[in-house]
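Summary for the lay section of the report: proteins are chains of building blocks that fold into shapes. Here we show the chain for Acetyltransferase and then a coded description of the shape we predicted for it.
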Amino acid sequence: MTTAAARDAAYASASWTVAPEPYDSPVAAALWRAYYTEVSDRWYLLHEGRPTDPAELEREVAAESGADLAPPDGALLVARYGGEPGGTAGVRLLEPGLAELKRVFVREELRGLGGAPVLLAAAEDAARALGAGRIVLDTRTDLVEARALYRRHGYEETEPYTARPYAEHWYGKKLG
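The coded shape description reads as follows.
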């Protein structure tokens, strides 16, 4: 069996699990770096025709520690596929009853295997556990796959609630 065929067979028999992870763990750091590299490169390639400058990547990764995703007002979740870290989603309270969804990401080689909906459901559960009755997020226009995912799972476009760089679309969902 070829390496690709063996990998595909392993993926076919694997399943997703999601659990809380410390925001500063090596697993969280590796997934955050993969996430930031992908979304940053995508933006720079689209707008400037180049990948992210490595020094800029290091500055941005260092500036976004993820500490806002730590208990008691936040949660960072890691999804594993067949036991291997495959994605993340974070939740943090913005105010009592209102949570924000952050850093939803599935590694490219694991996309299409059902991880994003599993992560999204787990993040919504985490938001409810934090006392939220509503969850919001912001995203960019070029992240069309993410925007489609949110719409498929009941998120509706809303008025802006942030003024962050790169935030171009805002979504919200009432948590039942």
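Put simply, here is one thing we learned. The two ends are 47 Å apart (CA to CA).
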